[in-house]
Design a protein that fits this description.
There is one protein chain. This protein has nine helices and seven strands. It has 346 residues and is an alpha+beta fold. Strands 2-4-5-7-6 form a five-stranded mixed sheet. It has a two-stranded antiparallel sheet with strand order 1-3. A hairpin with a 4-residue loop joins strand 6 and strand 7. The C terminus is likely disordered.
Length: 346
Amino acid sequence: MKPALSITSRLTRSLTLVGGLGALLLLIIIGIEFRPTFSDAFNNLSNRAALGQVIHQLSEHVLLPMAVLIVPMVMAGRWAIATSVQPLIDAARVADAHTDDARGVRVDTTDFPTEARPFADAINRVLDRVDRAAGLHEAFAADVAHELRTPLTLLSLELERLDHPEVDRLRGDVAQMRRLIDQLMLLAQIEADRAAQLQPAAVDLADIAATVIARLAPIAFDRGARIELEADAPVVVRGRREAIAAALRNLIENALRVTPDRGLVLIRVTPDRIVAVRDEGPGLSEARLAELVERHRRADHASKHGAGLGLAIVDRIMRAHGGTLTSDAARREIRLGFPIDPAPSA
């Protein structure tokens, strides 16, 4: 496949071709105008002085001025072309600076050339439609999650009245579903905040980790596991506290499921804005983690009775904060990495 040429290359080629044709036409006109002089000089080759004088006159009054004019014109032409397309390059750089799931990204056409504005306006209209469709999708998901809360609450009340060996398991399943619904509603709220471009608040990762561990300590005790926290000092990032806590809780619950009795689940909060959850399970490779963040995938780290959305939700929360979800199989850790600079939205 033939590589595409840039606008600068195409215009430079066109200007070079036009300049070359102009120079050739000028030489033809000069040749026609001074044909008698050239004829006399070439017919009398013995008169080398006359021939040299003709060549000297031609070089001094035609070729040299053409060269002096062409070189600055080519340089000025390339500068003018580069200046004209610079707004397009700047707009592409601004669009690339956003995350691939950013909302509200538009092409600024203020400095665009008139010829390029219709194309940029069409792109902006497409982005408007994409944002509206995403907003409708999020609103629908939030509505569904909200409507599911009531029947799940009624189901929980009915289970309280039953006396059956499977009641405890069913209660756990219902609680898992309610928590999943709460997380989906939380995600919808995060996306709404991002669309409204609300500024995230400053939160302490160490404090969040301590709060989540305190809530999960009874579960760890029932399973015969230990939870420890390593955090020497507050680590402040910008984000939504409830969402970060939900992501961390998912990782700790997964770690508790794969950690054997009397095992240790260690949570580390480092100064470089990383929260690492280490368990005593088999570990999770980066490739496997990439598969598991896809919806409807399960693994040993997923709930036996859950919907397989745990890691997908964690990944979505981290991307909403401009962060990352990574894994270190050798250290048996899954890490939440937050950006050094404040996230643009959360």
